[in-house]
Amino acid sequence: MTSLRAARPRLLLAALATGTLLLTSACNDGAGPAQDRAAGTTPATAARSAAPTATTTPAQTPTPQPAGADDPALKPFYGQQISWAACPADPRAAKAKIDTSGMLCGKLHVPLDYAHPAADALDLALIKLPAAKPDQKLGSLMVNPGGPGGSGIEMVKYGAKEYDGVLHNRFDVIGFDPRGTGESSPVVCYDDKQHEESNQRDTPLEPAARKARHVKAATEHAAACQARSGKLLPFVGTRNTARDLDVLRAAVGDGKLNYLGISYGTYLGALYAEEFPKNTGRLILDGAVDPAQDRLDHGIDQQVAFEKAFRRFAADCVENHPEDCPLGKDPDQAAKKAADFLDGLYEHPLTAEDGRRLNRDLGWTGAVSMLYGDEKTYWKALRIALGWAMKGNKPDYLLAFADEYNGRDEDGHYSPMEEANGAISCADTSRPAPTPERARQAVARLQAEAPLLSKGVTVEDYDEPSCAYWPFKTTEKPHAVRAEGAAPILVVGTTGDPATPYASAEALTKGFANATLLTRVGEGHGAFGKGNGCIDAALEAYLVDGTLPAAGTRCS
C-alpha cells in the first residue's frame, strides 16, 4: 500500500510517516518500471512440476450460491449482464503501436456501500482480452497490477503480450480499475498544475522545516481530497474491492475466481480469499505483501531492501559494465558516488530540455524506480540515465523515469494513481504512533542498514500516527489471513525484490491454511512477465491443470 513520498528520498520516507508503502509492480517489461503507475515507453521493453494439487478439478467448477449473492439487495448486482463492446480509441496505445482491436470494454455496476447497497452505486471500468481458443476456454483470469491504485485496464491493454500462449488461449483475461482509481470514479484531490508545483519542490533537509512541511502538506491534502472526493473516501478500501471482485466473478459467469495479483494485488487476493474462501479457484499472488506485518516494520524492511538493491546495481555497474558506468572503478564506493550526485541535486538541480528541473527528490525517485526491474534492461537504462546526468548534465532520462513513477505523461497530465494510493492505504490500515523507543529503534536500523537512502532521517519523522490528518479512520488492522476452506493458493516471491522483500512472500505463504511458495532467484519486483521460463511454466501448469510446483521450487 504505497505512495512513497517525503524526505530521503521523498519516494520512500514520507510513506513511513503517512502509512503508505511502495508496492508498485513491474510485471510487464514493455510498460516500464512501474506498471501500476502508468503505461509508458521507457527503455525497458522449467519444466512443469508433476506434483498434484489438493484438488485437480477444472479451473471453471460450479460453486454454491456465493457469499453475498443471497442478499436480496445484492442480487441485481450479482445477476447483471456486462455489455462488452469495442474499446474506445486510445491515442497513447496507438502511439505505442499497441493493437487493441481484439479487446473489449465494459462496465460493472457495484454498490458504493455494501452495508446499504440500494443507496448509491459506482460503475467500474473493465477490459477483456478474449480467449484465443474459445472452444478450449476454462473461464476468466482476473488481474490486478498493484499500487494500490494501479490500473488493471492498462495491465491488460499495454501488457497483452505477456499472456500470449497458453494463458491467452485458455482464458478471457480481464482487467479492471478498482473503485477510486483510473476510470472507476477516481479519487481526485489536485489538478495537474498543483501536482507539478509539488514535484518541483524538494523536501527540506532541516528536520524542523521538514516536519512543518509534512504537517502542512498532509493537512492540505486531506482537505483537498475531502472537498473533491469526500463522498467516495470512506468506501475505497481493499475489502470493498474484494467484494467488487466477487460481483465481477459472478457477472462474467465464473463459478470460481481465477486471479493473478501483483504486489498490492496480493493483498487484494488475500482479502478475497478471506472473504470468499469457497469461491476461490486458482489464485496467484506474486510479489507478496504480508498482511500481518506492522506498517512501520514493512516500510523499514522495504527501505533496507531498496538500499541493498541500489548497492547491487552500483557494484554491477562498475564490475561488469565499465564502458558506460559513471560510478568510478571501486565497487565498494560506487553506490555512495551515485547517492552523493543525487543528494547534490538539492543545491544544484539540473534543467531538462522542457525547462523543468531535476531536483533531489525527483532524481532519487527516478533512480529508485528503476530498481523495480531486472538487471538486464532496467539496470542498463539506469546506468545510461546516470551517465547522461552525471557526465553530460542532461537529466532528461532520470526525469522521465520519475515522471513515469509519478504518473505524469509527456503532456504534463497526471494520472489519479497517487491520490488513489493514499486514499486506499488509509482506508486499509492506520498505524498508531510508535513509542519513542520504537521510533529510535527504527531510525537506528535505517542509519545502520540503509544509510544512503535514509540520510538525515530523525525520530521526528516517525513520531505521529500514519494517516493522522485523514478525514476517515479505518477499523482495519494488520492481521494474518488464514483463508480456511480456500482452494490451494500459489504465492510467488523474488529473492532480490526491493518493493516486497522475499520474507513477505514466506510469511504470506505460512499464514494461509493452504498455500505453496514458488521462488524466483533474481532482481526486480515480481516474477510474472520477467521472461523466466521456469516461472512461466509453473504458472501455466497451475492455472490450466491445477498442478502446483513442488514445495521448495526455485527458478533461477
From TrEMBL:
Q: Hey, what's the signal peptide range on this chain?
A: 1-26
Task: Work out whether the entry's keyword set contains rRNA processing.
Answer: no
Q: Which domain of life is it from?
A: Bacteria
Give the keywords, sorted: Hydrolase, Signal
The UniProt regions of compositional bias labelled Low complexity, in chain numbering, are 37-69
Q: Where is this region: Disordered?
A: 31-73
Q: Which GO terms describe its molecular function?
A: hydrolase activity
InterPro entries, sorted: AB_hydrolase_fold, Pept_S33_TAP-like_C, Serine_prot/Carboxylest_S33
Family label: Belongs to the peptidase S33 family.
List the protein's name: Alpha/beta hydrolase
Q: Which organism is it from?
A: Kitasatospora aburaviensis
**What does the record give as the organism's lineage?**
Bacteria, Bacillati, Actinomycetota, Actinomycetes, Kitasatosporales
